[in-house]
Amino acid sequence: MERLEKDSIDLSKVNVFKLFYKYFIPTLLGMLGMSAVTAIDGICVGHGVGSDGIAAINIYVPVFTIATGLGLMIGAGCSVVASIHLSRGKVKAARLNVTQAMAIATVATLVPTVAIMSMPEQTALALGSSAHLLPLVVDYLLWFTPALVFQAWEAIALFIIRLDGSPKYAMSCSLVTAVANAVLDVIFIFPLGWGVMGAAFATAISLALGGLMAMGYLLFGARTLRLLSPKLSRRSLMYSLRNVGYQCHIGSPGLVGELTLAVLTFVGNFVFMRHLGDDGVGAFGIACYYTPFIFMVGNATAQSAQPIISYNFGMGLWTRVRQTLRVAIATAVACGLVVTGVFAAAPQLLTGLFISLDTNAARIAVGGLPLFAMAFVFYVVNLTCIGYFQSVERVKPAMTFALLRGFVYLVPSFLILPGIMGNAGIWLSLAMSEMLTTLSIAVFMATRHRRSPVRA
């Protein structure tokens, strides 16, 4: 029987440090490429349309993040389940779980796509669009939404491709998406003058390319985890729903993680509008364009550790599990510090990539980005720890900490800190939420270590 040990990466024997970085470097580059898709949109729109264009796209961001969260939830859960099956020699079961995940995700994405396309203005208003921004939001929505299914395919498949022993191909899918988006953004927004519609169309095409590349690998190029022909009987459907339900149970913290970005954007838009008006929303929009980069750094760390942890967890090799966790947390801290330093040292440069520095929105962003960056170390460490709990099928703590950082701590921070610290409190709300979550995780893990030192 074909086993993962026969592939190019042996998850049970290779030195953990070398193994982790064999996954981490291509995964990080690929993740940053995915984040570049939205950032390039913002840069081109900021210079081609202005701060209203950035604000309009920021209104739509919650839809984008929820769709990404769906993919991360199913992808993470599927990868954990498939890793454990592979560690026990159950290759067909692993392939079946991957097939079921891709099929159910396709249907789950197409249904809201049709609903959104049928009611574009109502959707835009429900997302918080003002009358002034409504035409721009609707333009972006109509041209971007059809690509949500390809986005889900790519988000899920990248987990599986890395597990299958091809992290470099996973990276190439993300980089093709980013490069195509950059080229098409420039063409559609500047020579053709299509504005936010052009940005949406460029992103839709690039996501379709990445999604089709990823799906093509699972259909034709996979070493072990190639898709199976689906069975359409009632019994098979119920079995698929049960399996994907369990995958979603394991991966649900990934959805909550993306919902954190949605909540951050939605509540942040409201608070910035209340305290600083449209220019404040424009400035916050710039920060929101950078936030996915930080999210993807954390995701890259967690996802690089996940196949190693899950596989060795399935084999009962707890020493390798703990070693991988230590390497992942150290990497998270180092990456968080580097990114924080960049934001603290060069807020003018980071702001100027999106809009002219002589605008009021730019002045607000330049003052706020260093404060916003104080969240980044905690942010990346939290994602890494939550990913660890998912990888060892400990869904309850993973979900608890995901909810703490995404709702329990974040929303009150946004509502309380501005009253205490003024405008600086708005920018520091994310840092407060992430720091409190890190402290909660540290207390939990210390308590767990005292009770069960073998599996801490």
From TrEMBL:
Keyword Flavoprotein attributed: no
Keyword annotations of the record: Cell membrane, Membrane, Transmembrane, Transmembrane helix
Compartments where found: Cell membrane
Location (main, coarse): membrane
Pfam families membership: MatE
Listed InterPro entries: MATE_fam, MATE_MepA-like, MATE_MepA_subfamily
GO cellular component term of the entry, any: plasma membrane
One of the record's GO molecular function terms: antiporter activity
Segments crossing the lipid bilayer: 20-40, 60-86, 98-120, 140-161, 173-194, 200-222, 243-268, 280-302, 323-344, 364-389, 401-420, 426-446
The keyword S-adenosyl-L-methionine appears for this protein: no
Membrane topology: Multi-pass membrane protein
Name of the protein: MATE family efflux transporter
Protein's organism: Marseilla massiliensis
